[in-house]
Design goal:
The protein is of the alpha/beta class.
Length: about 450
């Protein structure tokens, strides 16, 4: 869930006119030959609270429209552009943009409900579609048909505050590699004084269960096997018992139960939290959104390193879009999200706008020519200490990647309960919590 980015909550997006979302394919949007206009709506315009990024987006729209005569782009600025509380209703109600963002957890559901257009015949509009990693493309491909253009792919690691490591007598160049080492380091950081949190974790808002999945994968456990819940296991018990011990024996995880996705990053940005699970974009947000000091943060591989949750997102096309709109929509995706040096990959512009350039936060192009070019451009405009992220890159070479389970959001909501319980109740029964969650999860999975 980027889902991070994801992920993760304002109002729903704008309702469409028939022309904006494709409607009945009337004359105003059939094609742009002979002067006819093609109107599309696109999601994810930066919010007004990020004026430089919004201005850059608006400038990109003008550049795109100039290069594609007859195409008119209308942006919606719901932020974050994926809101799990409104997404399904927005889709079902016909209010979705021509180009909309979908997290990997929702791919199958959206495709199964025919809420995304089959774009197999149009992927050539995205010039470097073939450079996207095959396993990432496979996620948006069903029965040989393509339903989206991947935009983000990530794996989870351990984000940590190097400054607090130094204060606590820990070596920031040797971050924890195991959960035992995380617990030891967290205890030392919490010992710095009141208000210090060694390891931050969530207890609700679906993000609690999401982090449970990250933790169980890292230990070699599973969430779902053969259509049934598999987290009531030694690895699942270890997740909860370790968190309970850190809360009630060590007092190293703080007393507040964090719910919203951004709350933990806000806490990291404030400079008194030592560690949290997260993808590299967490570093970007901690520095850029929450005023963390750039030199303070590093990221390493996920503790124990048996496996790491892999997530991501893709842009999909409203099934109401006609052929001309579909082509224009994919041209926009190509320009704004997939071209080195353009749109979101205009790192030089990002640097000039004060963005935290330098974090290796997206590996969806892998080591392809496009991926190599992106890495080169990012390094050339880096403003962050890229050497602090090398442990993450090194660890990632040997960590197995796991996709989020089916019915992920619903399962995460179920697992919020035990995550919250061990953080709020000293006498929480880990075995009973897992058994109850297993029963609820199996009921959900039986209907999948």
């Amino acid at each position: 869930m980027k889902a991070r980015n994801l992920a993760i909550l304002l109002t729903t997006g704008l309702a469409f006119t028939a022309t904006a979302c494709g409607g009945d394919g009337g004359d105003s949007s059939d094609d742009n030959a002979g002067g006819k206009s093609v109107d599309i709506t696109v999601a994810c315009q930066p919010a007004k609270t990020a004026p430089k990024q919004r201005a850059a987006w608006d400038a990109d729209v003008k550049t795109f429209e100039k290069a594609h005569p007859g195409v008119k782009v209308k942006s919606t600025d719901q932020q974050p552009c994926f809101d799990p509380k409104t997404f399904a209703a927005k889709l079902a109600g016909g209010q979705m943009e021509t180009v909309f963002l979908v997290p990997v957890t929702n791919y199958n559901d959206v495709i199964a409900k025919k809420q995304a257009k089959d774009i197999t015949a149009f992927t050539g509009q995205v010039k470097n579609f073939g450079d996207i990693k095959q396993d990432v493309r496979d996620m948006v491909t069903k029965e040989g048909k393509v339903y989206g253009i991947p935009n983000v792919s990530y794996s989870v690691g351990l984000v940590y505050n190097r400054a607090l490591f130094k204060e606590a007598g820990l070596d920031p160049d040797q971050p924890p590699k195991t959960w035992d080492e995380v617990r030891t380091a967290a205890d030392k950081i919490a010992g710095l004084g009141d208000g210090y949190v060694g390891f931050g974790e969530y207890g609700g808002g679906v993000v609690g269960g999401w982090h449970f999945a990250q933790s169980i994968f890292s230990r070699g456990g599973e969430m779902v096997v053969d259509g049934k819940a598999a987290f009531n296991s030694p690895e699942g018990k270890a997740v909860l018992q370790n968190l309970k011990d850190m809360r009630w024996k060590d007092d190293s995880v703080g007393s507040k139960v964090l719910i919203g996705w951004e709350t933990l990053m806000q806490q990291m940005g404030a400079g008194k939290t030592g560690m949290m699970l997260g993808a590299p974009d967490v570093v970007t947000d901690v520095v850029q959104k929450f005023q963390g000091k750039p030199d303070n943060y590093g990221i390493t591989g996920i503790p124990d390193g048996k496996a790491s949750l892999s997530g991501g997102e893709a842009y999909m096309i409203n099934p109401k879009a006609n052929e001309a709109q579909t082509k224009a929509a994919l041209d926009w995706i190509d320009f704004q999200f997939n071209t080195p040096g353009k749109g979101r990959f205009d790192y030089a512009r990002g640097k000039a706008n004060g963005e935290a350039v330098g974090v290796p936060n997206n590996d969806y192009m892998g080591d392809s020519p496009t991926g190599q070019k992106l890495a080169e451009l990012r390094a050339a405009s880096a403003v962050l200490p890229t050497e602090y992220y090398q442990p993450y890159l090194d660890a990632g070479k040997s960590v197995e990647l796991k996709l989020e389970p089916v019915k992920a959001q619903e399962l995460y909501a179920v697992l919020d309960v035990p995550m919250s319980a061990v953080l709020t109740r000293k006498n929480a029964d880990v075995d009973k919590l897992l058994k109850d969650a297993e029963t609820k999860a199996n009921a959900i999975l039986a209907n999948s």
